Amino acid sequence: MGKKLFGATVLAFVLGATPAFGQLPGLELEPFLGAYIPTQDIVDQDIPLVGSVQGSQKEAFAAGARLTAWLAGPLGVEGTFTYAFSDAENLGAVTADQSAGVWMGSGRVILKLLPGPVGVHATGGVALIGRTGDAYNDVTEGETDLGGVVGLGLRFKLPGIFAIRGDVDAFGYETQFTGDFGGTTLETEGQFQVDVVASVGLIIGLM
User: Fold this and answer.
1) Which domain holds residue 114?
2) Which range has the worst mean pLDDT, 4-13, 29-38, 87-96, 158-167?
3) Residue 48 phi/psi, 5° resolution?
4) How many domains is the chain partitioned into structurally?
5) Which of 16, 20, 55, 23 is nearest to 179 (CA)?
6) Membrane-crossing residues (predicted)?
7) Residue 140 belongs to a domain with what CATH number?
8) Can you tell me the mean pLDDT for 56-71?
9) Are 37 and 195 within 8 A, CB to CB?
10) What is the rounded CA–CA span in Å between residue 184 and residue 82?
11) Cα–Cα distance between 83 and 67 in angstroms, integer?
12) Of the listed ranges 50-54, 149-153, 172-176, the one predicted with least confidence
């Protein structure tokens, strides 16, 4: 009896979301554009037989998409994918820029902190970060990393099923590479990274 009563109470809560949130589409798609801003070097150490190596990703244009499903009340879940058209800058003995795109996928919980025509929200979850391009041709391990992401954003309601959304997200993770350089296998030290993505997109309510 107690379990049935508890289940009925939970179901009533889910179905009885407040009118303010009930007006929101249950499923939203948001294509977005933004800026990718790395804050740390990806490699910074002295490597035997190579010398001082200090490399970093460069700031870049980013694009992506977000799919959000709203649950009961102010809570929702979302998945995002972002690609940054970045280069890698090698600041060692030889200075060179090479193509080094960065992709980021994430699964998050989103919480509406302030509902209404102008809303505020926070997000947090897990992220997978990967690197591609000429800069990583000699890397045999470490091109993909698991980390976390937190974000804060604003939402501006437009007529109909549309809204403008802006977000600032911080991805935290550690990089460590193993590579085959001139027939010698080398491993870099772990470097903690914080990559920031600032984006603006158009929300389209799907249902």
Assistant:
1) 2-205
2) 4-13
3) -55, 140
4) 1
5) 55
6) none
7) 2.40.160.20
8) 96
9) yes
10) 34
11) 15
12) 50-54
Residue identified by tokens 């003995």 is: 93
What local confidence, expressed as pLDDT, does residue 23 receive?
45
Both structure tokens of 79: 């998945």
Q: What is the mean pLDDT of the chain?
A: 84
CA distance 25 to 7: 25
- Secondary structure class of 71 (helix, strand, coil): coil
Specify whether the CB–CB gap between 167 and 155 falls below 8 A. no
Kindly report the pTM of this predicted structure: 0.82
- Give 4's pLDDT tier (boundaries 50, 70, 90): very low
Could you tell me the two tokens for 1?
Answer: 């009896």
Tokens at residue 121, please?
A: 């929200």
Q: How many CB atoms lie within 10 A of CB 140?
A: 12
26: pLDDT strictly greater than 60: yes
Does residue 17 carry a pLDDT above 50?
no
Please measure the distance between the N-terminal and C-terminal CA atoms of the chain and give it in whole angstroms.
Answer: 36
Residue 54: count of CB within 10 angstroms of its CB: 14
Report, in this order, helix, strand and coil percent for the chain, each rounded to 5. Answer: 10, 65, 25
CB count, 10 Å around CB of 199? 24
pLDDT, position 98 = 83
* One-letter amino acid for residue 130 of the chain: G
